[in-house]
Amino acid sequence: MHVPLEKVNIADWLLTLPDAEYQRCSHAHIAAGTSTTDDGRTMSINVETIGDALMEWTLSARKIDDQTTEYTNHIHASATNEFIAFIQEHGITLEQAAAARQTASEGAQPGRNAQLRCQHRRHALRQA
Description:
By secondary structure, the protein is an alpha+beta fold. The protein has helices at residues 10-16, 19-24, 81-89, 94-126; strands spanning 29-36, 42-48, 54-65, 68-78. 43% of the residues lie in helices and 30% in strands. A two-stranded antiparallel sheet has the order 1-2. A two-stranded antiparallel ribbon has the order 3-4. It starts with 9 loop residues before the first helix and ends with a helix.
């Protein structure tokens, strides 16, 4: 992103990302919102469809120079016990399921990531 790292605040961006804008980034995006944990921490909730796996989504930002920030979106998928039982019942190996999941993820990423980067950049540039 062509924005200084000092203006990038991933948590603020996610917690203020309008649901409609999140949905416009990808046909797989179902909803975005916020909630509060029992101990009072605010959290972002994003619902999307990419394959059939439990996913962990990590976002990070790293300074390249005074006007450029590298924005990284890393997804880690894990198979639940229920998912393993399901694929076994249907004669699918874990390797086949993992390959299908990777294909689904790669197909969803390019357009979505570009749109999310643009939205994140606009949010960062609005910051004082």
